[in-house]
Write a structure and sequence with these properties.
By secondary structure, the chain is an alpha/beta fold. It has 11 helices and 17 strands. It has helices spanning 67-74, 89-98, 127-132, 168-171, 226-240, 275-296, 330-333, 351-354, 381-388, 405-408, 469-488; strands at residues 9-10, 13-14, 41-47, 77-83, 137-143, 175-179, 191-192, 195-196, 248-253, 303-309, 355-361, 370-372, 376-377, 421-424, 433-436, 439-442, 450-453. Strands 3, 4, 5, 6, 7, 8, 9, 10, 11, 12 and 13 form an 11-stranded mixed beta sheet that branches. Strands 14-15-16-17 form a 4-stranded antiparallel beta sheet, covered by helices on one side. Mean pLDDT is 83; it is low at 1-34, 104-119 and 317-333.
Length: 490
């Protein structure tokens, strides 16, 4: 039995975990026994604004070639009912790192405190800290998502030339190289640890996107260079680990295909004006490079690879290099459904805003080429990986997550999760949503309450609130209980 322990602190309380033993006696099928590695390497690749319908393995009608992701799906299990904790970057990434939703469940409420003690993330339970304290090297390359960077503001404005006080190193990563946020927000600089690389540009940089004004950037900055640099850093780390038996947690948080759309030219087909398509191809290529590096370094058989996205796709065909082009939904502009059959886009609580691809490859443990409709959220990563390494979390940690390791390994089915309540706590144009089984309620729509049967109406086109008032009332009460639970755990 391993002597794993949890030593993080939060809410001014010392949190100690009870050491437990998970008897991994059963394999994917009841008649087959499988030995599960006690501490496999973990590679978590998170795309930025990638839709579930962008991948060929999820959408046979996708216009984008994704051979490496399709191959990954063939070597592992693809989940079709996985959701982020919000329909945009910040709440989604916060949920992954902490196992908690960032926002209250009602429109107009303020964000939750981002730290358990109101002061610092240096002692608050996080996913990388859990792994770090239990024998893993923890490294991150890519977009942090502006989670508590802590830039110096002595002058009243953030000073990006000085080392920040927050960021991934404070959250439990041993190493970080990447950006604080998306490539349409400042600062446009690479950060090594807690300090920017290079010198500031004498002029503001125009990220060429509808969403931003010119921003602070490093001299010589190029958006087209971001993905190659981050992919190269990730691949180099894997290659340099060859022969090292200490387990590692590698978090590769891509900046693609988020706007500004900046794929390398080799990924854009001749005459193709929709740069989104090329950017998704580059995402697929980067995944392929990481998988190849794992194979070449001899890590394939003892590495759990997870691929997902931080929210649904905005699916925009906007190209800032073409003056005067209006913003259009990609699914309306060309024959490509970035979010598959699901209604809505990023920033919305329709399914298309938060239902994401989730592919898991774990040689010898999960079934190759399998598909699963077991529902879960990315807030479940924290408690699931804790269970994988035999650590039982205190009740006050990862309060919006659940250990779904058995579902990953193919045990049981979605009926086991039929009673589970899912809250999509981020709120934009379509409001807060609550889901239980087949039923989904959007109780705060501007026009009317919305109730949808996802089993028969994936497009959320038929509002059944008037014909099933008892379901509306049941889900309203469930939402109230969830709000009370969240308030108690602040």
């Amino acid at each position: 039995m391993s002597n794993c322990a949890w030593s993080g602190q939060g809410n001014s309380k010392t949190m100690k975990a009870l050491v437990t033993y998970l008897a991994f006696a059963l394999g994917l099928q009841a008649a087959q026994a499988v030995e599960v590695p006690a501490k496999p390497n973990i590679v978590f690749i998170l795309a930025d604004d990638l839709g579930i319908g962008d991948l060929g393995s999820y959408n046979a009608d996708s216009m984008i070639e994704t051979p490496h992701l399709d191959s990954l799906a063939g070597e592992g299990v693809s989940f079709t009912d996985v959701h982020t904790s919000g329909s945009r970057c910040l709440p989604s990434r916060h949920g992954i790192m902490t196992g908690q939703h960032l926002y209250f469940r009602k429109p107009g409420d303020q964000p939750l405190k981002r730290t358990g003690d109101g002061k610092s993330w240096s002692s608050v339970p996080t996913l990388p800290r859990l792994l770090q304290q239990n024998g893993y090297d923890t490294v991150m390359y890519g977009k942090w998502g502006d989670l508590d960077m802590g830039w110096d503001r002595t002058s009243g404005k953030p000073d990006y030339t000085k080392a920040c006080r927050g960021g991934p190193l404070v959250w439990g990563f041993d190493e970080f190289f990447g950006l604080s946020n998306s490539a349409n927000a400042e600062p446009l600089v690479f950060i090594d640890g807690q300090k920017m690389i290079g010198e500031p540009s004498p002029e503001k940089f125009d990220p060429k996107t509808l969403y931003s004004r010119p921003v602070f950037a490093a001299k010589g900055w190029s958006n087209e260079n971001i993905m190659p640099v981050l992919t190269g850093k990730t691949v180099s780390f894997i290659r340099n680990r060859k022969g090292n038996s200490k387990p590692f947690f590698l978090y590769f948080a891509m900046t693609a295909p988020h706007t500004p759309l900046a794929p390398e030219k080799r990924f854009v087909k001749e005459g193709e004006e929709h740069l989104y398509l090329g950017f998704v191809r580059q995402v697929d290529w980067s995944v392929g490079e990481v998988l190849k590096a794992l194979d070449e370094a001899g890590f394939r058989d003892n590495t759990l690879v997870i691929f997902s996205s931080d929210n649904g796709s905005p699916a925009t065909a906007f190209d800032a290099t073409l003056p005067g082009r209006d913003m259009k939904k990609l699914g309306q502009y060309i024959s490509h459904s970035a979010n598959g059959p699901w209604r809505g886009f990023k920033l919305e609580n329709w399914e298309g805003g938060h239902r994401v691809p989730f592919i898991l490859r774990w040689p010898g443990v999960v079934e190759e080429g399998a598909r699963s409709d077991v529902p879960f959220q990315l807030t479940d990563l924290f408690p699931t990986l804790a269970g994988m390494i035999d650590v039982e979390l205190p009740a006050e940690v990862a309060i919006d997550g659940r250990n779904v390791l058995s579902a990953w390994r193919g045990a049981g089915g979605k009926d086991e999760y039929a009673d589970r309540i899912f809250v999509h706590a981020d709120h934009h144009s379509s409001g807060t949503a609550i889901r239980q089984g087949r039923w989904k309620l959007i109780p705060e729509r501007k026009v009317e309450v919305g109730l949808y049967d996802l089993a028969h109406d994936p497009g959320e086109l038929h509002n059944l609130a008037a014909t099933h008032p008892e379901v509306v009332e049941e889900l309203r009460k469930a939402l109230e209980r969830e709000e009370q639970r969240l308030t108690r755990n602040q």
